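W.,

You were right to be curious about this one. When I first looked at the sequence I had no strong expectations either way, so I just let the prediction run and decided to look at it fresh. Below is the sequence, 90 residues in total, followed by the output.
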Amino acid sequence: MAAAVDVRILEGVKQRLSETGNFEETDATISDFISDVIDYMIGAGVSYAVIVSHIGVIARGVDDMYVNGAGTADFSPMFKNMVTQLVYRS
């Protein structure tokens, strides 16, 4: 079951990933990845308020996980640098 993710975040990430349509299975997978990315960002020290105002960063992290596959995914240096910058804005 997908974690409860704000629909605005889900739709924003899907748009950035060029995922169109409303497919329950795809939405559930992307929602799980969004939750994982947000947890990573919070663990790094980014406040939730900053996280939700930077959907593009969330999308970058989701893309890293989505393309590389669950269980083998590693975040890109670009995503990690973006998260580091957001820590300073929190």
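Here's what jumped out at me. The helical segments are 7-16, 24-44, 48-52, 55-68, 77-89. And, maybe more interesting for your project: The longest helix spans residues 24-44.

Coffee later to discuss?

I.
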